[in-house]
Amino acid sequence: MSSHYTSSEMMTVTAARALENGMTCFVGIGLPSEAANLARLTHAPDVVLIYESGTLQTKPDVLPLSIGDGELCETALTTVSVPEMFRYWLQGGKVDVGFLGTAQIDRYCNLNTTLIGDYTAPKVRLPGGGGAPEIATNAGEVFITLKHSKRTFVRDVDFVTTLGFGRDGKGRDGVPNIGKGPTRVITDLCVMKPDPETRELVVVSLHPGVSHADVIEATGWEIRFAEAIEATPEPSANELQVLRELKARTDRHHAGE
Amino acid sequence: MADILSLHDAVARYVDNGATVAMEGFTHLIPFAAGHEIIRQGKRDLTLIRMTPDLIYDQLIGAGCAKKLIFSWGGNPGVGSLHRLRDAVEKGYPHKLEILEHSHATMACAYEAGAAGLPLAVLRGYVGSDLPKVNDQIKFIECPFTGERLAAVPSIRPDVGVIHAQRADRQGNVLVEGIIGVQKEAVLAAKSSIVTVEEIVDDLGATPNACVIPGWAISAIAVAEKGAYPSYAYGYYPRDNRFYKEWDAIARDRDAFQAWLEENVLQAGGEV
């Protein structure tokens, strides 16, 4: 891999590029928030960012540590109550894309943020669903971003907290008033999209310097590759500069308080 | 009209052992001072309701106050786990904790239904999720008009709702500003309510559409300066993100937690 940017930066820039200017995006905390704000500060100045804390059309100068940081409220067009956020804005169909992270994802894009192991005797208890179960079904479509590893990319998730396409890929079939679901998954190695027929994830684009073997090694099932696989474009100098400045501002801000 | 009480007296009067308590504040205005007073008064067997348990319920659970937790996202935001919550769920320490988990959308709707006096909340939720398999409070109903399958959960009707706000006036009317979360709903849904405030003022200075809760809809007001710390109060003080990060190490270790609790809660504050 080229040495002037990291694999994490490659992931964030690629995830940011998925957002188009003017889209309305319901943003998850962490990696999705980093990518969504990078998009807003580069190619998509009019992207509308919404956080579940009720902050509507927010333009934070630093990345929030929590979903309800003061920065989000102070830079928002307006702040609504949490019931209004979920009922009017999300369930009411005003959100184009939900941008989510996860602890575990499977081949049908189902997300697990609940626990590892058995529900009554968990090996590891994770935070839980939060906004994700309804973001994933009520937003027009869903982007997912997370680091690629065998621990996170599993054949079947231990628990379906949030629907991708169900245990058999048919979980959205015939369900009225439901979004398209996940349309792309962006990792530090590649971009994947669900197969239009089976809904199983397929690698469509490899990041520079990443081999098929790297992805196979980091995936917990026999991952498929598209026939015409693309090379993900490298980050531009401007994207890298804006991202690094954003992260430096954020670190200073959170360390100073 | 709300009685203006000391925090000690408000908690002593309205929070009974075994009560169902909702202490709300979505990242912002989390009523930590009231939580610490509940710990100091040694309340036990509480059913704790909160969308995001956050550090406040990590502390109450670690201190042994909770019997049951109803929640929708139980992490330390941007940092990781709530280790006292995990220790209780995974290892039964300090004792076994019953949990009932929802999604945020559901809890928000359930508070709203509680405030509206309805027995249930209805939403387009939980499609394809395993959560209904592990939470028997989640049911599905058919819309009588369209036939659409919708999720239904009981409304939240706590014995006592506890929130923190910026200020109250001398009649006990309360202004909540910034991220208002489900605070108003938590107060209106509850049988009794305690609102802690940064200060009591002559004039709230509220604009016509501000989030104001009338004093006659609140049971007790108590002044608790910096009562939301280490979360924040918009217009008063910022969130102490560094403390949220430090909490990870404190809560990870049972002895470190106990020492923190002793020094910062049990032996601190609590003026009567």
Automatic annotation (TrEMBL), chain A:
Cell division as a keyword of this entry, yes or no, is: no
For this UniProt record, the keywords arranged alphabetically read as follows: Transferase
> Which InterPro entries would you find in this protein's record?
CoA_trans_fam_I, NagB/RpiA_transferase-like
Gene3D superfamilies in the record, alphabetically?
Glutaconate Coenzyme A-transferase
Tell me a Gene Ontology molecular-function term this record carries. CoA-transferase activity
Checking Pfam families in the record gives: CoA_trans (PF01144)
Annotated protein name in UniProt: Glutaconate CoA-transferase subunit B
Identify the species of origin.
Answer: Modicisalibacter muralis
TrEMBL record, chain B:
Classification via Gene3D superfamilies: 3.30.30.40, Glutaconate Coenzyme A-transferase (3.40.1080.10)
Q: Does the keyword Transferase apply?
A: yes
Q: One GO molecular function term?
A: CoA-transferase activity
* Keyword annotations: Transferase
**What protein is this chain from?**
Glutaconate CoA-transferase subunit A
Judging by the UniProt lineage, the source's domain of life is: Bacteria
Is the keyword Ribosomal protein assigned to this protein? no
